[in-house]
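Attaching the record inline, Q. Sequence:
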Amino acid sequence: MDFRRGSSREEPEINLIPMIDVLLVILIFLMVTTTFTRFAELKINLPTAEAVKPAERPDEVHVAIDAQGKYVVNRTPMQFHSPQAFAEELRRAAGGVAEPIVVINADANASHQSVINVMEAARLAGLNRITFATQGAPK
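Structure, as predicted:
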């Protein structure tokens, strides 16, 4: 039995406007709270170390690089012609030590490429233990 014979049936409708309003508010909130960094304005302060100089160990190979890009391996001046040739010099300086440590003493004004050249030569020579020497902060 249909008791609502004369009444018309209303179709349910979904009102999307409140949902769109909520999504817009969330979008605006995310846009306002998001921060962007500028890498062009990145300032780097290199660290200094406050440590006592350890005694020299026989398993170290000291490589010094000055501001002009000249290399000194264990107090012997060397020329950098290629990474392979410099790797041979590092092997010779290491002698028969099983796993020597390559200590890089680079001038503050030395080029980054000079340091990378030493690291590449050490890799080719099979010297995997590399460390950098730092200067203590002036008191």
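Helices lie at 17-33, 83-94, 112-125. The first strand starts at residue 60 and ends at 65.

More tomorrow.
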